[in-house]
Amino acid sequence: MAIADVAEYAHLSAADLEALGVELDTIRRDFEDARGASDTLYIRRAIAFQRCLDLAARVVIGGTRTRTGWVLGTIALAVAKSVENMELAHNIGHGQWDWMNDPEIHSTTWEWDMVGPSAQWRYSHNYRHHVFTNVVGVDEDLGYGVLRVTRDQEWKPGNLLQPLRHLLLAATFEWGIALHDLYSEQDRCGTDAEKSAQTRGLRRKIARQAGKDYLFLPTLGGRRWRRILFANAVANLLRNLWAYAVICCGHFADGAEKFTPDVLEGETKPHWYLRQMLGSANFRAGRVMAFMSGNLCYQIEHHLYPDLPSNRYAQIAERVQAVCASYDLPYTTGSLVRQYILTLRTIAKLALPDRFLRATSDDAPETASEKRFGTVMPGSGLLANSIGGRYGLANAIRNRKNGLAQRRGVNQPRRVAASRWQAAESTS
Questions:
Q1: 408: exposed, middle or buried (C-beta count within 10 Å: 0-12, 13-18, 19+)?
Q2: Average pLDDT for residues 135-163, to the nearest whole number?
Q3: 257 and 300 in contact (C-beta within 8 Å)?
Q4: I need a surface site. Which of 81, 210, 318, 336 has the fewest CB within 10 A?
Q5: Do residues 327 and 382 lie in contact, with contact meaning Cβ atoms separated by under 8 Å?
Q6: pLDDT tens by residue, 156-197
Q7: Residue from 170, 188, 43 nearest 104 by CA
Q8: How wide is the angle at C-alpha 307 spanned by C-alphas 305 and 312, nearest 5°?
């Protein structure tokens, strides 16, 4: 099964868990207090850049007669749409800039350039996903209802098609999100009339969005309407593929753990913090890629502090990594390509019934539980070793990988952590 006791899995004592919560609360307060003019300038410049790029791209698409000009304009339009979707709409919708009290740059007023209404997305994403991150059967973003991404999800014959579903979802991601958010909203509606109102809201947004991209703007191009129509369609496709890849790498890559609903019983803020840290994954990115991804290359930091300004995540990451090191917790990251390949591997593997898979739901690259370590690790608490360090989850994972490699005949040297654990065992 997935993780049922997040503290036990992380091998943190009650005292350690409380201390972890205090440290993470301190990081939040420090960056809340630091918000100011530089952050305001950042978001206003980001909005201005996105709008100027969008306008310039459309002028190039409609004004040039060459194929090269069309390609460059379309790529620029896709970049503009990606920035609007991720760095602007997603982060503004999280309330990251509500503290400015700007009526335009506010979570309740910003409407994104996608077919789904922002209001429906905010409930599904900000509440159902961020509060219950990766809790099987509760977090509806865990596979979006069409992908099996953990062995704790029941296999069905339809999962055989999930490699194809994966490609279809990537290409039509904005439409999939729109339907996903609608169903989430309807689940909390009390009456059929309320459900119908949500459906009408989605239809109105689709009409406005599709009308803009595929009717109004192409019509403005006159005889060149086909050129503009095709550019809009391709730009939307590229935006969908990019957004989908970023989201997958942050949630479905190896190391982004899953949890049973048991973790929610009596969950405290430190427990919630720990679940966010263990249930998310980062990917390495430079400043340009970070901006293009809405700074969601820092998915761990985003899940810890979803309403702090995204331009601060790089600074926050330095302190979060230090906290992980001090409690010997894993900080899951890797290159974008690696994280996406791991995601594809999970999707392909879990298309098959469990009887065709080697690992179990307690010990697989994409799924783990407290039983992963058997009797190798203590049930709780961080063990001090003979030279004053700590042996916790991060070292346990490394040690276990080394042990598996040795049993498979791979010549892999054991890490220093392993000798430290043996020293601790010999003195205990």
A1: exposed
A2: 94
A3: no
A4: 318
A5: yes
A6: 999 999 999 999 999 999 999 999 999 988 888 889 999 999
A7: 43
A8: 70
